[in-house]
Amino acid sequence: xxxxxxxxxxxxxxxxxxxxxxxxxxxxxxxxxxxxxxxxxxxxxxxxxxxxxxxxxxxxxxxxxxxxxxxxxxxxxxxxxxxxxxxxxxxxxxxxxxxxxxxxxxxxxxxxxxxxxxxxxxxxxxxxxxxxxxxxxxxxxxxxxxxxxxxxxxxxxxxxxxxxxxxxxxxxxxxxxxxxxxxxxxxxxxxxxxxxxxxxxxxxxxxxxxxxxxxxxxxxxxxxxxxxxxxxxxxxxxxxxxxxxxxxxxxxxxxxxxxxxxxx
Amino acid sequence: xxxxxxxxxxxxxxxxxxxxxxxxxxxxxxxxxxxxxxxxxxxxxxxxxxxxxxxxxxxxxxxxxxxxxxxxxxxxxxxxxxxxxxxxxxxxxxxxxxxxxxxxxxxxxxxxxxxxxxxxxxxxxxxxxxxxxxxxxxxxxxxxxxxxxxxxxxxxxxxxxxxxxxxxxxxxxxxxxxxxxxxxxxxxxxxxxxxxxxxxxxxxxxxxxxxxxxxxxxxxxxxxxxxxxxxxxxxxxxxxxxxxxxxxxxxxxxxxxxxxx
Lengths: 264, 261
Known about the structure:
Chain A contains 9 helices and no strands. Chain A is mostly helical. Chain A has one domain. The longest helix of chain A has 39 residues. The radius of gyration of chain A is 22 Å and the shape is elongated. Chain B has a single domain, classed as Rossmann fold (3-Layer(aba) Sandwich). In chain B, strands 6-7-8-3-9-10 form a 6-stranded mixed beta sheet, sandwiched between helices. In chain B, helix 3 packs across helix 4 and helix 3 packs parallel to helix 5. The longest helix of chain B is centred in the C-terminal third of the chain and has 18 residues. Classes of the chains: A mainly alpha (264), B alpha/beta (261). At the A-B interface, helix 5 of A face helix 2 and helix 3 of B.
């Protein structure tokens, strides 16, 4: 009987914890959005974040995109050549990248590279009382810390996604046309005919949604570190960062499916 | 009678640890602080000294009771009112809480940049002036991680004083400093308080050393606060708890009157 009661108690505790946690994240989002409209706007900090999240992700995104495109070129070629329709390679590569792989892989790479860093930075600021210090100076920590990251991510991720698409298509061109000998005219004209505005829009909408997911989850988990169950000290920062990356990645994949199902 | 600037009225606070045990840290704290005076809050570790500071700042809410700052209860304030009240505070945290990705100069300049409309040049002049006052000239481009403990405390002090606060809160200002450095920090406190006439609240386990700085000593023990108005009062106290505490922190005190009893 005791054991059963204990189990029920634990279940209740866990439920309450998760509801509180979710509520906390909701409020965090609300305050963050409010922070965006507060003045003065920290333009220099915004540019610094943009450089970190955007410009410094360039190399990672470039290599991911190039090799993804090249693999698509090779895989697509062998599949399509079975049906004698290698000419469709261009549209296959482009559509896959623009609709799916561009936004998703960019989202995942940015989560791993910049999201984890944002989360750890805020977590450390929280445990070393730097957030408290800001509050004591009556400086809104949301405007001061979160707003630059929020806006920079929303600007950087869609741009990185577009870059991913372009680099990926050239990767496909390299392996498909240059290495495997698909006709370059067919490669590009097929692409021109099959890629519609609708597909590009879908990719851009996805990239905005993913940017939002990344910055919300990663900054939120770090900022609310002390309210989570991750314990104290350096260990809590590492746990909360891992958690943020996992949660953000999974959420991106779930929303990728949902958005595709809704908008395609 | 002068209105107290800070007042604790029957404040209770407990914490729940991860294993579910509830620890009652404050069990009905009452004391008040008059403007312009220096109050030292002392007591052994884990008696809720730092909690008291967080409560004053509204960073934490008590389970019950009131904390009045300038007559207004901070426990029921919204964030806007709280911001207003906080702008009359200067705080030096236990670990100073420097913004570690900013230089010393940027740390000290931040309150001025954020809260005043001074020009860049004016801010530069004011910051350099106070860096000189605190003996930090030549270190302005260093990052907090490159400073010694004493310097870091001085950076925290300089940062907290930029907006000329009415109330200064110091959480363990001398922890981790050698006796000479501690003395230097106390001297700095005294000098600056004379100049700026703020109300000071100092949390410290270093009580004996700052007796001479304090107008009032609040000793926290087992969730209660005992108030003393002079260092003699605390040294001659008959309360066994206080006697223990005094002996623990300053060694046995020879009291000739004990001989006559």
